[in-house]
Design goal:
It holds the Pfam family MTPAP-like_central. One of its GO terms (molecular function) is RNA uridylyltransferase activity. One of its GO terms (biological process) is positive regulation of gene expression. Its cofactor is Mn(2+); Mg(2+). This is RNA uridylyltransferase. By secondary structure, this protein is α+β, with helices and mostly antiparallel strands. The chain folds into two domains: about 15-55 and about 175-360, Poly(a)-polymerase, middle domain; about 60-165, Beta Polymerase, domain 2. Helix content is about 40%, strand content about 15%. The protein has helices spanning about 15-30, 45-55, 60-80, 115-130, 165-180, 180-195, 210-220, 265-280, 300, 335-350, 355-360, and strands at about 85-90, 100-105, 130-135, 145-150, 155-160, 235-240, 245-250, 285-290, 295, 315. The strands form three sheets. A five-stranded mixed sheet has the order 1-2-5-4-3, with helices on both faces. Strands 9-8-10 form a three-stranded mixed sheet. β6 and β7 (about 245-250) form a beta hairpin.
Length: about 375
Amino acid sequence: MGEEISTKHPDLNDLGSDVSREFRGRRVRNRKRLVDCRSDIDRWNAPFLAIYESLVPAEEEKAKQKQLLASLEKLVNKEWPRAQLYLYGSCANAFGVSNSDIDVCLAIEDTDINKSEILLKLAEILQADNLQDVQALTRARVPIVKLKDPVTGISCDICINNVLAVVNTKLLRDYAEIDGRLRELAFIVKHWAKKRGVNVTYQGTLSSYAYVLMCIHFLQQRKPAILPCLQGMEATYVVTVDDIECAYFDQVQKLREFGAKNTESIAKLVWAFFDYWAHLHDYANAVISVRTGSIISKRAKEWTRRIGNDRHLICIEDPFETSHDLGRVVDKYSINTLREEFDRAANIMQYDPDPCVTLFEPYVPS
């Protein structure tokens, strides 16, 4: 059935084994560059779609989120009449799984605000309205108020003026409207990443947001392309946030047939996604860029060396905050973990008799 499928993450204290494993992985990747997709790949379309459907939040859950947002808005507007609340992140970008917490941005136009004072006042207001577990975390990297709503059972984090995240959320949601295969692929990849333990940024792996960008870029690169490059088209949505101009074509209802010439199934795309990251991506030189719909060079971005804690071993450009590399958290140990997991997934998709089961087997430390 092909080569042995590795399931061991690198021992972070064993640099020698890291190096030998990397050479072994590179040898496997080079040997398999020209492998065609298995002929029976479409047998797994239905099982993959069933996994996707099981992860998608129910309409009832979305209704509860809107209910909570509306009740929070009433409370907030008593104190700050011109303020607005926005859902952002995975709960609002079409890529959130069931039973997720929600992230809310409180947008206040006054530029002279003291965020800590507002958060403390907000916490006071929320506690007075009998919301549960209210905490103002004013010293966090992103200061927030945490709470739980006893009516809907939803937990919520509220931040102040993180408007760029709201715009990013809209961009991803618009991409999701163009072709349903993006959501299917991203949910499956995120589910795989969670099961295999490679979606924890503080451990040096990638965020859910990074994986979604990887999926968008991948579908922009298919031949024929499944997704367009919205930032490369005439802008119909333009907003400036923190001196960053965010502009792109957002009339996505006009693009629903964009990917129709590409008839690749979800199973084929899952195979191709892992095959790309295991065997074809140029980690040494390439930056993936949803903004340009292309690969750009690390040299052009000046991402060829470590600066402070930022390393550029796998490079994923943020679509608007273009100096931000989503892969900067990946270090010389966790890059081996990621590449080994991409190799494992590619092997499973190519050779395993039941990839829909084996792919998602939880990672167990050896």
